């Protein structure tokens, strides 16, 4: 089934047309500047693809906040965002000329869907995906369905305990100060240490601090959502050995509560890296457009890319 997929990010929009299993092979990138500049380029690309061969649906995973309730007239509309000019952009309206269904969700919900159906979590029923980058955001997929209520999860703004070893204990979230995002996002790390985490060196105290903050998040998610896996993606997670440090911190923090997560092997299975670090939002948007039925993806048809 030929569908159009779009991932809308703070720095770039990525789009591709094709089948979810192969969609990452050819995609186009457009810089995120203003809607007046970015969206016409996106539409030109889609029009050219449609002319080659029509697509039957459009899926988009975008930065938010975003209206995601199809029964509400804010569906597909960007809410109050820190990105200038993007508030009130209405994706369903922008793509109306193709006269195909437009499915909209957040970039992290789309990523969670992709990892759940095709990626690292393809054997799991209850999946949380979290990106740790410019911001922190998460999506939840349970039994192949995106889990959300009247608004999407806001995992990045959960409250965590500030470490006594934190040299900048006042976090940078403009709403909450020291919520998770205020303490552990890429910009929060750079504000604290004046450098990216990956440049600090493996034994730098900033690494343990970061692992502690993300382990607190994992523990909260584990205890509330009871996921089979928590997948950690985003720029900050490219720091070598951060994943291993988070797993260790989490195991110590859990302190044998829930015996099934007491072993190293169980924690390694629980906390995973994404299979599609660069493209999960795009793949998820394609799955969303298609209706994401697991039956379409038998193990034989698409190779498992889990790491
Ligand atoms: P975005 O969140 O804008 O989609 P990223 O997920 O790449 O993009 O996140 C960008 C943030 O991640 C930056 O604040 C930067 O500090 C951090 N970052 C990017 N690459 C790395 C890396 N290799 N190691 C550590 N931190 C990184
Ligand atoms: Zn916050």
Can you put this structure into words, describing what you see?
The strands form two sheets. The chain has a five-stranded mixed sheet with strand order 3-2-1-4-5, sandwiched between helices. A five-stranded mixed sheet has the order 8-7-6-9-10, sandwiched between helices. 43% of the residues are buried. With 307 residues, the chain is an alpha/beta fold. It is globular. Residues 293-307 have low confidence and may be disordered. Helix content is 32%, strand content 16%. The chain contains nine helices and ten strands. Zinc ion binds next to α4.
Task: Write a concise keyword list for the protein shown above.
307 residues; alpha/beta; Nucleotidyltransferase, domain 5; 2 domains; five-stranded mixed β-sheet; 9 helices; 16% strand; binds adenosine-5'-diphosphate; binds zinc ion
């Amino acid at each position: 089934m030929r569908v159009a997929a779009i991932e809308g990010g703070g720095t770039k929009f990525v789009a591709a047309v094709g089948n979810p299993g192969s969609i990452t092979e050819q995609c186009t990138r457009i810089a995120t500047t203003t809607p007046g500049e970015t969206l016409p380029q996106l539409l030109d690309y889609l029009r050219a693809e449609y002319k080659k061969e029509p697509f039957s649906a459009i899926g988009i995973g975008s930065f938010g906040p975003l209206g995601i309730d199809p029964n509400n007239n804010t569906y597909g509309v960007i809410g109050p965002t820190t990105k200038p000019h993007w508030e009130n952009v209405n994706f369903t309206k922008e793509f109306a000329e193709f006269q195909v269904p437009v499915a909209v969700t957040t970039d992290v919900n789309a990523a969670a869907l992709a990892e759940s159906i095709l990626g690292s979590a393809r054997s799991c029923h209850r999946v949380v995906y979290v990106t740790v980058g410019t911001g922190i955001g998460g999506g939840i997929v349970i039994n192949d369905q995106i889990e959300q209520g009247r608004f999407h999860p806001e995992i990045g703004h959960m409250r965590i305990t500030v470490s006594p070893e934190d040299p900048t204990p006042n976090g940078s979230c403009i709403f909450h100060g020291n919520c998770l995002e205020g303490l552990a996002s890429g910009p929060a790390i750079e504000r604290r240490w004046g450098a990216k985490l990956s440049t600090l060196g493996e034994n730098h105290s900033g690494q343990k601090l970061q692992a502690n903050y993300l382990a607190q998040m994992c523990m909260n998610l584990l205890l509330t959502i009871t996921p089979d896996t928590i997948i950690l993606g985003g720029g900050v997670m490219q720091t070598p050995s951060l994943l291993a440090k988070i797993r260790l911190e989490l195991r110590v923090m859990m302190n044998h509560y829930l015996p099934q997560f007491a072993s190293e092997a169980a924690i390694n299975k629980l906390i995973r890296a994404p299979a599609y670090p660069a493209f999960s939002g795009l793949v998820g948007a394609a799955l969303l457009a298609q209706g994401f039925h697991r039956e379409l993806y038998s193990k034989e048809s698409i190779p498992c890319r889990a790491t």
